[in-house]
Amino acid sequence: AGPSGVGKTETVLQLAELLYGGRQYLTTINMSEFQEKHTVSRLIGSPPGYVGYGEGGVLTEAIRQKPYSVVLLDEVEKAHPDVLNLFYQAFDKGEMADGEGRLIDCKNVVFFLTSNLGYQVIVEHADNPEAMQEALYPVLADFFKPALLARMEVVPYLPLSRETLAVIIAGKLARLDNVLRARFGAEVVIEPEVTDEIMQRVTRAENGARMLESVIDGEMLPPLSLLLLQKMAANIAIARITLGVANGAFTADVEDVPDEDTQPVAEAEDEAVL
Q1: pLDDT of 87 strictly over 80
Q2: Residue 113's beta-bridge partner residues?
Q3: Rounded-to-integer distance, Cα 258 and Cα 247, Å
Q4: What b/e readout covers 103-123, taking b as 16+ CB neighbours within 10 angstroms?
Q5: What is the DSSP string of the chain?
Q6: Selecting from 3.40.50.300, 2.60.120.460, 3.90.780.10, 3.40.225.10, what CATH number does the domain 8-149 have?
Q7: What's the CA gap between 144 and 29, in Å, rounded?
Q8: Tens digits of per-residue pLDDT, 109-137?
């Protein structure tokens, strides 16, 4: 539980890779699609005599096909409370019955439930973990039945600090650096001002690290992508790629490989400003 954009879903993705070897072993179910009581049949399948009988449920079929996997119940607070009754036996004994009455073994399945419930409490008590636990429990108990809540381990996610955001930004830029070097065989320079500008844009909103992808993919990369496509269309080799900031906007410079047969007066250079 915690605010938006603090890494709850990313934690699940990483654990799927560490525990089972890849994200293909992750089943994500958006619980906002189960706001009505009758939608429980979509999770476990319809019983005999009802429409959809024999088709199986999205949850039970996923567990049957991948008995060693991770199941993410995303935005669980948006589901109808009666839908959660399915998980009493799953969390306690490691088994659940599908719509046809067959038992599904889920002892080797790791369940994660993400929620924004109580995020105000988490933010207010971020410096006092003991007080946070005491204040958070009543908020969760208003939605989850105590018997179900007792079968779960509550992990509060604190708001991301600037230091943590800086580490995340550095990791994403390092990944971008590696991709560009591998694809174009060029030197890649990412100026320090890029990190500062991304940090400034991300901290304007209250979405935490969720805005990172939007800033990088939607604001920083488009001018660079245009230049790279132009070079590729002209079959021009690239020597150096530089990402920077000018007047509050992301910039991209792409330098050509000098022609060895001629002595150019200056290196060919293109610049784009967002």
Answers
A1: yes
A2: 73
A3: 29
A4: ebebeebbebbbbbbbbebbe
A5: --STTSSHHHHHHHHHHHHHSSGGGEEEEEGGG--SGGGHHHHH-BPTTSTTBTS--HHHHHHHH-SSEEEEEETGGGS-GGGGGGHHHHHHTSEEE-TTS-EEE-TTEEEEE---TTHHHHHHTTT-HHHHHHHHHHHHHTTS-HHHHTTS-----PPPPHHHHHHHHHHHHHHHHHHHHHHH--EEEE-HHHHHHHHHHHTTSSSTTHHHHHHIIIIIHHHHHHHHHHHHHTT--EEEEEEEEETTEEEEEEEEPPPTTS--SS--EEEEE-
A6: 3.40.50.300
A7: 18
A8: 999 999 988 888 888 888 888 888 888 88
Pick the CATH number of 162-273 from 2.40.110.10, 1.10.8.60, 2.40.160.10, 1.10.230.10: 1.10.8.60
∠ Cα 63 31 151 (to 5°): 65
- pLDDT bin (cut points 50, 70, 90) of residue 57 is confident
What are the tens digits of pLDDT across the range 232-243?
Answer: 999 988 999 999
Q: Count other C-beta atoms under 10 Å from residue 132's C-beta.
A: 19
Equal fold, 8-149 vs 162-273: no
pTM confidence score: 0.72
> What is the residue extent of each domain of the chain?
8-149, 162-273
Show the tokens assigned to 144: 């989850």
CA dist 165 and 170 (Å) reads 9
On the question of pLDDT at 265 being above 70, the answer is no
